[in-house]
Amino acid sequence: MTTLQQVASRAGCSLATASRVLNGTGPVSDEMVRKVRRAAAEVGYRSTAGTSGSSRRRPVVGVLIPSITNPVFAASLNGIQNRMLIAGHGVLIAQSEYDPAREVDAVASLLNQQPTGLILTVCDAQNSKVLSADLPPWVLLGNPATPGAPAVICADNRQAGRDITEHLLACGHRRILFVSGYFKASDRARLRYDGYRDAMKAAHVAALEAVQIPFVDELETLDLSATLSHFAPSAIIASNDLLALCVIAAVRRHGLSVPDHISVAGFDGIAIGRLTEPVLTTVELPDATMGAAAASLLLDMAENGAMPRQLQVAHRLRRGGTVRDIT
């Protein structure tokens, strides 16, 4: 079993100093806190109950996500938790439910636990009140880089939107509709729509106005009857895979089939999309990898004093059976 003495030796400090850091029982410099926590993570030290029977406080990180019900964020959390487990950190989770007004209270609840740092997926990085607050080390996960966000792990959502639209255009579709949650609740969705408009403009095809609906309310009973009648699309792009699956169900309730009557595509590459019949056409994003990368970056910043940095991950078009070639 790893001992506290091994931690102290690796950190280059006294046993008493290592104990103060890991037990939170005395004044220690920020630099020494980083050294000791890093050493504890590297040697696999786990705090145990003290002689008095009280447990020592385990370091934690706070994670803000829009919703736990979306498999995308569940995959990111899995990557974060696996990385933090190795480092000896717990993970606290708060949800905004895609509501910018709830983000401030959600982050405040995380800060009450004195986390080592925060991993944040906000509704709109450019306008979020959370990111202007006095925060411990933090990493933005999934949102685009902004001037006030030096540490970011994200994908190029605008290019992803362009790629999936170009695929549909190449299959002969011209009446392509974009269905999304509210853009104010997701800057990722807005960027994907911007990419859709880029591709439509480049192809000299008129872009349709996006249909915006709530991300979390009654998606399983989504009614697109009026929308389908008004726009008469041959293809629909949904701003994420979960919504795409709901769109497919809505199309079928309308008496139409996918892809014979309407093609459907999404974003994210969630596992359930590969289990549907037909398999969902989508843009795959490495959500679990992004979560793990965000966790590693946060630990490097909080414990090693590393400089914040930005990483853009690659996406990939996955052709499935929900898009029909009509050329």
UniProtKB/TrEMBL annotation:
Residues annotated as domain HTH lacI-type: 2-56
Domain of life from the UniProt record: Bacteria
InterPro entries referenced in this protein's UniProt entry, alphabetically: HTH_LacI, LacI/GalR-like_sensor, Lambda_DNA-bd_dom_sf, Peripla_BP_I
Cleaved signal peptide residues: none
Keywords: DNA-binding, Transcription, Transcription regulation
Keyword check for DNA-binding: yes
Protein name: LacI family DNA-binding transcriptional regulator
The species this protein was found in: Phyllobacterium salinisoli
